[in-house]
Automatic annotation (TrEMBL):
Keyword Oxidoreductase: yes
Coiled-coil annotated residue ranges, if any: none
Enzyme nomenclature, EC number: 1.1.99.2
Protein's recorded name: L-2-hydroxyglutarate dehydrogenase, mitochondrial
Organism: Ajellomyces dermatitidis (strain ATCC 18188 / CBS 674.68) (Blastomyces dermatitidis)
Molecular function via GO: (S)-2-hydroxyglutarate dehydrogenase activity
Length: 423
């Protein structure tokens, strides 16, 4: 069963109506006020774009923000096709944006979800990272020392505690626990952020594909060309439709799978970037046992582009496995590949030997929007988030390669973009 998508509460019902709405008088408070339709235009209505738009709407009350989304609903790409895990921030270099924003985002996310006025379903499930041999145990030791330097809590478990808490789990060489890892209902989170964005005066334009972006001149903002998107999941520009133009003082490119294409519309060829696509298949589990209550991850391996075929839980406690990693040519390949099942079962049985293979089935797929490396570089090598105001393009903020831990980092990314724009 595919994960559900967030239903929209406001749509661009007619192009004529939206043209008129975009042309109404606005007041601006950026350092170089211009006669533009909006202060901020955020491209991409996933969890990242929505978090940025919400942050700008709530913290800059004298500005105007529009969120442009090419699909008929928000959060229909990577946001709806992930593990919904709140990550601790263990795996990445200390100075990386992935580490800094994951740790900050984790605290912001737990605080938001637990607020009585929000009450977003979430749970601190904890996570076990499992070693099966001496080499993997050494990796866990290095990970523990790394976490200590970051101030992220981890601890090794004794065999008696392991057996008491999760008797069906096998970890021949030890378990490192991450107690601050958890899960969140990403759809409820999206709904809350969407509501707060609109309550803050933000506008959402669905089925709106960006076909071009150009700089209007020094201090003059940006012109964005849009067309109605087609009916398919790929949200391609509909044939024969005329372009509509809007202008904004700032443009934030949070377009996920389309972020490289948006960036390349504006930046010169020497600064073009290229995507890489890591497809991940998720597997369902139909049996009632074994049924762990903790997230289970194999010891990390370098160069894979992922964290192994791990076990996660949804808010009802239902077990699911994945994602694995399969490099594909584009983000449209969302059909689970039955050829991935045998390898997944083998990996799962390493740490959950009592699992019933016949109860493991194909569920759904997601595609992580990674950045391509240089010629000859390993596809699975570490690459950090790219979040920057582009040199020579004041007010244009690029967000590229925003994959895992993007969901956890989303609220912190909103803060980061606000700092880039306003200091």
């Amino acid at each position: 069963m595919l994960p559900r998508a967030l239903a929209p509460t406001r749509t661009n019902a007619s192009r004529h109506t939206q043209k008129n709405k975009w042309k109404r008088a606005r007041s601006f408070s950026t350092s170089t006020a211009t006669n533009t339709d909006f202060t901020h235009a955020v491209i991409g209505g996933g969890i990242i774009g929505l978090s940025i738009a919400r942050h700008l709407a709530l913290t800059r009350p004298n500005t105007t923000t529009i969120l442009l989304e090419r699909h008929p609903a928000l959060g229909t790409e990577t946001t709806s096709r992930n593990s919904e895990v709140i990550h601790a921030g263990l795996y990445y270099p200390p100075a990386s944006l992935k580490t800094q924003l994951c740790i900050r985002g984790k605290h912001l996310l737990y605080s938001l979800c637990a607020s009585p006025s929000h009450n977003i379903p979430h749970k601190r499930t904890s996570k076990w990272i499992l070693a099966q041999d001496a080499e993997q145990r050494e990796r866990l030791q290095r990970l523990h020392e790394h976490a200590e330097r970051l101030g992220v809590p981890t601890r090794f478990l004794g065999t008696a505690e392991m057996a008491r808490r999760e008797p069906d789990v096998r970890a021949r060489a030890g378990v490192l626990e991450s107690p601050s890892t958890g899960i969140v209902d990403s759809h409820a989170l999206m709904a809350r952020l969407h509501g707060e964005f609109e309550e803050g005066g933000g506008d959402v334009a669905l089925l709106t594909a960006v076909s071009g972006v150009e700089k209007m001149g020094p201090g003059g903002g940006y012109r964005i060309y849009t067309r109605p998107a087609g009916p398919g999941r790929e949200a391609e520009v509909a044939d024969g439709e005329e372009e509509t133009t809007i202008t904004a003082e700032t443009v934030i490119n949070a377009a996920g799978h389309n972020a490289c294409a948006i960036s390349n519309m504006l930046l010169p060829p020497a600064r073009h970037v290229h995507p890489a696509y890591a497809k991940g298949t998720y597997f369902s589990y139909a049996a009632s046992s074994p049924k762990p209550r903790t997230l289970l991850y194999p010891a990390p391996k370098s160069g894979l582009g992922g964290l192994g075929t791990h076990l996660t839980l949804d808010m009802t406690g239902q077990v699911r496995f994945g994602p694995d990693v399969e490099w594909v040519d584009g983000p449209e390949d969302l059909v689970p590949n039955v050829g991935r099942l045998e390898e997944a079962v083998r990996e799962i049985r390493e740490y959950l030997p009592g699992v019933r293979p016949e109860a493991i089935g194909l569920d759904y797929c997601g595609v992580r929007p990674k950045l391509a490396g240089k010629e000859g570089e390993d596809k699975g090598a570490f690459r950090d988030f790219v979040i920057r105001e582009e040199e020579g393009f004041e007010g244009f903020v690029n967000l590229l390669g925003i994959e895992s831990p993007g969901l956890t980092s989303a609220l912190a990314i909103g803060e980061r973009v606000g700092e880039l724009l306003y200091g």
